[in-house]
């Protein structure tokens, strides 16, 4: 397993508890240092397609009612998730997405948007349609990470940090193992790439036909005017729900004495060479002015950025590589890795064991086979 973000740790644990001999290699000095550690930690299972709704619903259940080996209690603070749309077209799309989510077993209900927003004094935009879940909310990323690390260790899985994978060894079109930048080859019957923003480089190096793009996304804190970094003087209620404007892709949730805000900007970047972008932060500031009421600051505070990774068609890549036997992918998870990670791990493990579930066939990397018509 290459990578110790949510994809690598979840898949490593899933394989280890099925009896496989698992080694996880991570080039950083700790887990969750990439996108898994820089995201907003939101559980939102209403997503864009029916197949992802099914995967997200399974992932949500695994977080809300986790396996006792992973956590003793829920990994989710159910502050609620309110999804709103303020245009007719957006309302129709959101209603369709909600229906797909309910069909997958997710408990979202249609609510009156005016009534729902009346209790949220920070939301500055009206809405024509709203979906509400009182079971979803925010994910405790630290407990999720620590639970996965402990569960892998209990299953005798090995984690090697500061392990930079230099190349993947293949022979006659099949994986033989991986080479680190120093030391002998580590032999393996299967190699799973959960390398986040670096997936495209690994694909090229392995001779895979898959292509991925890392895209930068910014987030920041909107803090009431006059409130300090510790939140003193803040009017933010920590029990406020996640509010996601579907049409504008702007969301907020209580955090750090204010509101964590993001307008889901998406710009292709080199995963080894990106930083905060002034123009993107200006755009986020304008989005805050549209979506937040006073007394919140009109400039994003304490901003940060991370990357989300997408396959060429925007869908997940879960399963076997179409050209390199023994090479598997858990990649291209976009902005849904934390919600879907535990469920995606089972899909990849099933593929390795030769019993892939047909419900997720459209997410298989085999769709990128050069010989597929």
UniProtKB/TrEMBL annotation:
Keywords: Oxidoreductase. GO terms for molecular function: oxidoreductase activity. It comes from the Bacteria. One of its GO terms (cellular component) is cytoplasm. Residues 2-350 form the FAD dependent oxidoreductase domain. This is D-amino acid dehydrogenase small subunit. It comes from Rohdeia mirabilis.
């Amino acid at each position: 397993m290459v990578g110790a973000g949510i994809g690598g740790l979840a898949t490593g644990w899933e394989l280890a508890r099925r009896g496989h001999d698992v080694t996880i290699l991570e080039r950083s000095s700790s887990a969750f240092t990439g996108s898994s550690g820089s995201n907003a930690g939101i559980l939102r299972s209403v997503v864009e397609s029916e197949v992802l709704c099914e995967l997200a619903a399974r992932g949500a259940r695994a977080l809300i009612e986790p396996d006792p080996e992973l956590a003793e209690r829920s990994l989710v603070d159910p502050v609620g998730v309110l999804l709103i749309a303020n245009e007719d077209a957006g309302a129709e799309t959101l209603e369709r997405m909600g229906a797909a989510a309910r069909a997958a077993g997710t408990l979202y209900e249609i609510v009156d948007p005016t009534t729902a927003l009346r209790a949220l004094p920070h939301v500055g935009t009206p809405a024509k349609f709203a979906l509400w879940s009182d079971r979803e909310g925010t994910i405790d990323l630290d407990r999720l990470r620590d639970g996965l690390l402990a569960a892998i260790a209990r299953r005798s899985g090995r984690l090697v940090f500061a392990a930079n994978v230099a190349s993947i060894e293949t022979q006659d079109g099949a994986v033989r193992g991986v080479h680190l930048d120093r030391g002998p080859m580590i032999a393996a019957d299967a190699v799973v790439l959960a390398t986040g923003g670096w997936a495209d480089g690994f694909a090229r190096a392995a001779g895979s036909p898959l292509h991925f793009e890392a895209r930068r996304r910014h987030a920041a804190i909107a803090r009431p005017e006059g409130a300090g970094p510790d939140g003193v003087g803040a009017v933010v209620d920590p029990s406020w729900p996640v509010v996601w404007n579907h049409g504008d892709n702007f969301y907020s949730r209580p955090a750090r004495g204010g509101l964590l805000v993001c307008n889901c900007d998406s710009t292709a970047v080199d995963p080894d060479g990106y930083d905060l972008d002034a123009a993107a932060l200006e755009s986020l500031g304008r989005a805050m002015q549209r979506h937040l009421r006073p007394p919140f600051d009109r400039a994003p505070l304490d901003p940060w950025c991370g990357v989300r990774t997408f396959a060429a068609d925007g869908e997940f890549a879960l399963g076997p590589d179409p050209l390199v036997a023994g090479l598997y992918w858990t990649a291209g998870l976009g902005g849904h890795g934390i919600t879907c990670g535990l469920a995606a791990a089972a899909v990849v493990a099933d593929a390795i064991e030769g019993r892939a579930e047909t419900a997720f066939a459209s997410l298989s990397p085999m769709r990128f086979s050069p010989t597929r018509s």
